[in-house]
């Protein structure tokens, strides 16, 4: 398992909230509850840090990714996923002689019909 924490700065969050308020097409994203929760920014940061520190393991690490620039965030996440998949050293299952014979027999039947 790979876990990502997308860390948005307080300044970028403010910019995005203002954009949601100012852009009619983004008004639907605006939530007054987000504004109420923003008052607890520091407490949330402490809780996130505590959660990450206490749930990261060698087999299930956290990647803390700067999220102010969406394109950069996506590159980092994609890179981590690719690296993780590559580290798994995955291979297609191998067929034994009995399976190959089963396939050959099935192929003969298919070609006759």
What does this structure look like?
The chain is mainly alpha-helical and 113 residues long. The protein has a single domain, classed as Rossmann fold (3-Layer(aba) Sandwich). It has 5 helices and 2 strands. The protein has a two-stranded parallel ribbon with strand order 1-2. It is elongated, with a radius of gyration of 25 Å.
Output the keywords.
Rossmann fold, 113 residues, 61% helix
Number of strands: 2
Number of helices: 5
Radius of gyration: 25 Å
Which structural class best describes the helix and strand composition?
mainly alpha
Please give the structural blueprint.
Layout: E1 3-7, H1 10-22, H2 32-38, H3 41-55, E2 62-66, H4 70-87, H5 97-112
Parallel strand pairs: 1-2
In short:
With 113 residues, this protein is mostly helical. The chain has helices at residues 10-22, 32-38, 41-55, 70-87, 97-112, and strands spanning 3-7, 62-66. It has 5 helices and 2 strands, in the order βαααβαα.
